[in-house]
Amino acid sequence: MRVKELHPLCCITLESPHGINNKSPEEPVTTALTRSRSLPAKSLIGGSESETVAGILYKWTNFGKGWRSRWFLLRNGILSYSKIRRPENLNLLSPSDDVRLIGDISGERLSRMDSCSGRRKQQKTVGIVHLKVSSFRESKSDDRKFYIFTATKTLHLRTDSISDRAAWLQALASTKCIFPLRSLNGDFSFIPPKDLSISTERLKTRLHEEGMNENLVKECEQIMLSEFSEMHGQVKLLHEERTNLLDALRQLEAANLEVGASGKHEFSSLGRGKYSECSTTASSDGKQEFEDVSEEDEPSFHDTKEFFNEPNVGSESNLAISGHADIKRRTKLPDPAEKEKGVSLWSMIKDNVGKDLTRVCLPVYFNEPISSLQKCFEDLEYSYLLDRAYEYGKSGNGLLRALNVAAFAVSGYASTEGRHCKPFNPLLGETYEADFPEKGIRFFSEKVSHHPTVIACHCEGKGWKFWGDTNLRSKFWGRSIQVEPVGVLTLEFDDGEVFQWSKVTSTIYNIILGKLYCDHHGVMQIRGNRQYSCMLKFKEQSILERNPHQVNGFVEDVAGQKAATIFGKWDDSLYYVAGDGISKSKVSDPASNASLLWKRTKPPPNVTRYNLTSFATTLNELTPGLQEILPPTDSRLRPDQRHLENGEYEKANLEKQRLERRQRMVCHLNISLVHELAIVICKP
């Protein structure tokens, strides 16, 4: 490439035979980069010398794509980065750039890039970070990771080695030191128009030498002065804009320094809501990836942050950051305010046989003081199994990860033992959110459809995400109630491994006569997208069953070979042995070579007729300061459920009937509006 230079007459261009700084245009990129490792570059601001640094870093994008390599360039206090889709076609830097490279960029790779220079395509910058109003720190859990914080996003970056991370952090620190908090307006002197002295003598002399008459010379002189005056006006406007930007920049840095001096790091804001490995908020990188998507790079969306991968999530410091320090959760329900009255079962049974239970208006006598949204969260009582599975996966033990996922899928049924009451059916749009920093999880659920009843939930923990939707098909058969969950539950780990399964059928027996009991039966297939999957069979309890609630299954690899056998009870514990096959004697009496996967926690001492677990007792609790920040749709603010918890049964019944009546009215109104709108649209 040849550089065009302006002729003194401003209207003729000459082709310079040499490149910038007398560099040969044919000089390979590899040579320029190698020679420039120790050469400094000049800063455009303040005239201070700052080093231009470049290299390849791995940037966390989202759970679907994970860590992706990006080309980072640090120059003049600005860190920019762009994608590297095809390294052999990437034009990393122009030959005139003087930079210091960090990281292993082999000569062979650069040679391939230089050899394909005819097909190079300049990569579009995905995002920039102004270091003057940013901060950064190294990761405590990973020696190769560090973070860059701005007011709107957080970059999660990773290097190839510890030394590379140290070099990048040193370069970032050095760059920030070059731009102190000072007035920058004095660095650029602007000449007022009245002080301008424009000489046109060279132009007139040159035109006279060409034999032009005086009138034409004066006309050319006026054209030049007019063009110069217009350009000067534009430069003045740019100067004013630059001054305003520098003032705003000083104010931002002053605020940034005040925050740093007070000890409130930008990272502390993550504890207040957005968390988990991974990500920048709606960053420019994500927007650019959506705009510049290709067939092999599908768009994906995410809104999570790296929080739970830090060590000691439950420590006092982290709890204090997130505003949940020293939370004391209750251990029992409030004492009932009045004595509960029984109801006539016969009249209800006669009127509701064969009907969908979700459409039947039952008195609160049949309810427990939690909603179905909270019941979804109760399935995560033993979330430590997923934390353990995540750690096993990180260490490369995929079998133990699959076993712990299977134990988690079974553990959710343990709380149903002895629970004969029905949770409240949520109203349409009702929500429930829970933040349990002591467990390292955050949960959200919502009723998204009324008929059929569909509940969606999402939970994030230490290195994993869990979500699903459930449509409960329930039937009341007089002597029993059968519930068939329809939906898929998904568990995804940070490394991209995914497990999916559906729940089995649940039945409550002896509604009229005998002792009520609940049983779960069916086959649960836990499908993994990598090496292992699992099959579990919940054995249906018979009348003469001496060993009820049995669960048996196995974990198999992609080749169909059984890697481990699982056995136990869904209401007590679960064991496994390596390999294939286990005798029935071992099922009832676990052998010494069997390893414990999960064991149910002991029930609370303060047992009520609801038989809630210790964890379930806390789900509807309003801890101090919580009610002020909850949305009005939260289940904990539902009046009939709160009255039932307090033992105010008459008020609970009246409120329940009022809310259900209002919901039916709203549904009928919406249907009428839809019909009217359809008629209007269909009219010619």
Automatic annotation (TrEMBL):
| Entry GO CC | cytosol; membrane
**InterPro entries noted in UniProt:** Oxysterol-bd (IPR000648), PH_domain (IPR001849)
Q: Write out the ranges of the annotated region (Disordered).
A: 274-335
An example Pfam family from this entry, by short name, is PH_11
Protein origin, superkingdom = Eukaryota
Please describe what this protein does.
May be involved in the transport of sterols.
Which Gene Ontology terms cover its molecular function?
sterol binding
Q: Respond yes or no to whether keyword Transport is given for this record.
A: yes
Tell me if Iron is a UniProt keyword of this record. no
- Please report the stretch or stretches of sequence annotated as the PH domain: 50-177
Protein name as catalogued: Pleckstrin homology domain
Instruction: Give the compositionally biased regions (Basic and acidic residues).
Output: 299-308, 325-335
